[in-house]
Amino acid sequence: MRNDYELYKAIEDIRQTISKDVDSKVNEEIEKRSFKVKTIFWACTTVLTIFGIGTWFALPQIAADTAKKIVKEETSLQVLGELKQKEIEIHAAHTNAMDYLSKLSNEYEEFSANLVIKLIDDNKFSNKLINEFKNNSDFIAITKGEVGEPGIDGLPGKNGMNGKNGEPGPPLFDGRFVYGSVSSDGQKVTGEDYTVSRMGGGIYKVTINKPFGSIPTIFVSAESAKNLRDGAIISIRYNSRTRRTFEVAISYGENNKLIDSNWQFLVIGK
């Protein structure tokens, strides 16, 4: 736009100088033609001398005015010609400026139209990428970062790299448990805080040293007896479970014959 500013400034400068040109040219020409004016003046003086004193006072002024009028008319014609030429130049400059501005406007409209088309194409391309990758597990992993480590004891997990916190850990267990392994003859093999006894073939009783606050949950499992096929069945005897004790029975075969066998248990409660 700097070229446009300089162009219009030049046009304005030309317009401001136009009003000064006529008077300047007239004075210049009068100065150049002063000799002619003097010649006419002396000619008029000679005529006045010949024709009389009365005319002597009038003719010099008439001659001077006539000479000045002639010079001014000639100079005005010359200046008008130059002004006409400048008018043509100004008109051409104005036309060029309008053409340039029109070209800029057309280029801007073309640029805007192309920009709109590009934005639409970019939007379509973005939507296409989103649709292609939104269900891609690898892409999701990259954009979301690594999954955080699982939480422990109900606390939030450690942050993953650019990922979210790990899922909260399981609730903190506020109860207690007792576990143990028992041999087929009713002897404690592993575990603490309990005693065990064999009440008869395939029947055992466990006594917890410290009673639970309520009847606990009990899990039991049995091993098949020696020289027998797999398939021993262990169960908690009916009405034997209390806050401190429980009894189990181990059987085998189609007739559910009670047998001695190794077994294990886990008691969970508060």
TrEMBL record:
Superkingdom assignment: Bacteria
Record carries keyword Membrane: yes
Segments traversing the membrane: 40-59
This protein's UniProt keywords: Membrane, Transmembrane, Transmembrane helix
This protein's name: Uncharacterized protein
Organism of this sequence: Neptunomonas japonica JAMM 1380
